[in-house]
Amino acid sequence: MADTQDKIVDVRTEEPRRRHELIFENYLALTPGEGFVLVNDHDPKPLYYQFEAEHTGQFTWDYLEEGPLTWRVRIGRTESAA
Fold this sequence. Notes:
Layout: E1 7-10, H1 16-28, E2 35-40, H2 45-54, E3 59-66, E4 71-77
């Protein structure tokens, strides 16, 4: 569930090649237990697979809105990511 303090990271206006970089910059800036809400114009499922490959067990992924025009996902950093 999104925390009212969660930062919003809206990548819809970013160049596609910059999106994952921006998202991971925000993820790595989180302290364990924090999260942000990703806003995207498509299902970010490939991003989920990248997180799973690079940060297994260290992130949470909760869909808040699933299209058709806007997807919102809360991405969090788990306590084990410390």
